[in-house]
Design brief:
Layout: H1 3-11, H2 17-29, H3 40-46, E1 51-56, E2 70-74, E3 80-83, H4 94-100, E4 106-111, E5 121-123, E6 141-142, E7 147-150, E8 153-156, E9 158-160, E10 166-168, E11 181-188, E12 199-203, E13 216-221, E14 235-239, E15 244-245, E16 262-270, E17 273-280, E18 286-292, E19 306-309, E20 321-329, H5 335-348, E21 350-352, E22 363-366, E23 372-374, E24 387-389, E25 401-402, E26 408-410, E27 414-418, E28 429-433, E29 442-444, E30 450-452, E31 458-461, E32 472-475, E33 485-488
Antiparallel strand pairs: 1-20, 2-3, 2-4, 4-5, 4-6, 5-10, 7-8, 7-21, 9-20, 10-19, 11-16, 11-20, 12-13, 12-19, 13-14, 14-15, 16-17, 17-18, 22-33, 23-24, 25-26, 26-27, 27-28, 29-30, 31-32
The structure holds alpha-L-arabinofuranose.
Residues 196-197, 209, 239, 241-244, 312-314, 316 line the site of alpha-L-arabinofuranose.
């Protein structure tokens, strides 16, 4: 086998030689050079800044990793299944998820740590703010909500709708105090919001925002409550607690909005020095958006070494985003090491899913009322009838995901449901545990109607009313604007 074909085999069939050549070119000029079979964590290790946590639902982050990437739990029987790699150091075995989760819903219960330190991420407990799940815990991510391809293989990301969060408050080897560290995450550049905080990285262990400087995470989104950048966002920022920072100033810093489908986002810190870097996770290199001293009040840092994903340090749960892979390192990585990691990420071949993603976490706005399909009082009780209510962009009770199985999911685990599997006019539209039945399947039609697969009836604002609290029912489709719904991101 010649060298090119051997490298192509090792990198995966979907990796183009152009991308590969680019990767090899960058790696060969970097002091942290490693073989083409390396994962990001091999590159960090070569650079003297090894990963102390490595999370991904899409691929192995070490060339020799052959363990589980993540675990899913299906609702049909509450059993779990680990999802591993297709080959040593390779891509996720999404077919295993598809088969285990067929005709039911699945949640991501564990994102394993590939570093060997067991810094896995699981359902986040309540912090200062409670989550929406029982006991104030956060929701788990819908395992099917973020399909993509990587190296030509199907894979799934971690879809963080508001209310979803993962955390580990008892880690091993993660930076504490003012110890140096690096963090990167590959995220969906089109899925974000302006609320706090779609974070990945180092956080406080008690879920309380009682001091600045106790966090150091990557943040991605368009939040302007603290720091922000030029244009409308989104931006890569750092959450350092008591503030997102886009540079040394507490407010505006002139970093550009990011506009890539897949984004590599990096933050790193050492005593009185930190940096933000990022780029297109599909091609090209990294840009340094900030490199300088700590903001006032953030030197020395007081990092506590917990790891979180999708939430703020105090369990603020209003952010949204999608995570594909990321790591925390021990030590402050060099730019050469990070450049080689970026080359490895672009060579991995992230791409949108064939046929695009299903409607994810959208509001459904009534054509007549301008009001949203809403679960009253954000109730999670089976049988709650949905209603019209003023659209509130950060309300989890108004975010609906149309899945590949045609369900309209809310909160990641409840589904819009025709009450009692009714098929007559006036049947209440309620929420219920997702079970895959045809009374929980809906077609989103080109004319704006939403029709029940079992009944053929239209989702309808009762009595063509438009006020807050108007109940939604099923009714024969009649062309009325009280039966038209527009998805809004
Ligand atoms: O620092 C920004 C956010 O502020 C933190 O994530 C959260 O803990 C606090 O509310």
């Amino acid at each position: 086998m010649n060298t090119k074909s051997r490298i192509r085999r090792l990198m995966g069939a979907g990796t183009s030689l152009t991308l590969l050549s680019a990767a090899i070119g960058i790696i060969s000029t970097a002091p942290a050079a490693t073989a083409a079979t390396s994962g990001p964590c091999d590159i960090y290790a070569s650079g003297g800044t090894p990963c102390v946590a490595a999370h991904s639902t899409t691929r192995a982050l070490y060339g020799a990793y052959n363990g589980p990437l993540y675990q899913v739990r299906r609702s049909s029987d509450n059993t779990t299944r680990d999802i591993g790699v297709l080959s040593v150091g390779g891509y996720a075995d999404a077919a295993a998820q598809d088969s285990f989760c067929a005709n039911t819903t699945c949640l991501i219960t564990i994102i394993y740590d590939q570093s060997g330190r067991n810094n896995r991420l699981t359902q986040a407990p309540p912090g200062h703010f409670p989550g929406p799940a029982p006991g104030g815990w956060d929701n788990l991510a819908d395992a099917k909500a973020a399909p993509i391809t990587i190296g030509g293989q199907k894979a799934y990301g971690v879809y963080i709708a508001p209310g979803t969060g993962y955390r580990n408050n008892n880690t091993n080897g993660v930076a504490t105090g003012d110890q140096p560290e690096g963090i990167y995450a590959v995220v969906d550049g089109t899925h974000y919001n302006q609320w706090c905080c779609f974070d990945y990285g180092n956080a406080q262990t008690d879920g309380v925002a009682d001091s600045p400087a106790i966090m150091e995470t990557v943040y991605f989104g368009a939040n302007k409550q603290w720091g922000y950048g030029a244009g409308p966002g989104p931006w890569i920022m750092a959450d350092l607690e008591w503030g997102l920072f886009s540079g040394v100033n507490a407010g505006f810093n002139n970093i550009p909005s990011i506009n890539h489908r897949f984004v590599t986002a990096m933050v790193k810190g050492e005593p009185n020095h930190w940096a933000i870097r990022g780029g297109n996770a599909q091609s090209g290199g990294l840009t340094t958006y900030f490199d300088g001293r700590r903001p006032n009040g953030y030197h020395p840092m007081k990092k506590e070494g917990a790891i979180l994903l999708g939430i703020g340090g105090d369990n603020s749960i209003t952010g949204r985003g999608t995570f594909f892979e990321g790591v925390l390192t021990s030590g402050y990585p060099s730019e050469a090491t990070e450049n080689a990691v970026q080359a490895n990420i672009t060579a991995a071949g992230y791409a949108p899913a064939a046929g695009g993603n299903p409607q994810q976490g959208v509001q459904l706005v009534g054509g007549q009322s301008g009001r949203c399909v809403d679960v009253p009082n954000a109730s999670t009780t089976n049988g709650t009838q949905v209603q019209l209510w003023d659209c509130v962009s950060n309300s989890t009770a108004q975010r609906w995901t149309h899945t590949a199985g045609r369900q309209l999911q809310v909160y990641g685990n409840k589904c819009l449901d025709a009450n009692g599997a009714g098929t007559s006019n006036g049947t209440q539209a309620i929420i219920w545990d997702c079970h895959g039945g045809t009374n929980q399947q809906w077609n989103l039609n080109a004319n704006g109607t939403i029709t029940g697969v079992q009944s053929g009836l239209c989702l309808d604002a009762n009595g063509a009313a438009t006020a807050n609290g108007t109940k939604l029912i099923l009714w024969s489709c009649n062309g009325g604007t009280n039966q038209r719904w527009t998805p809004r991101s």
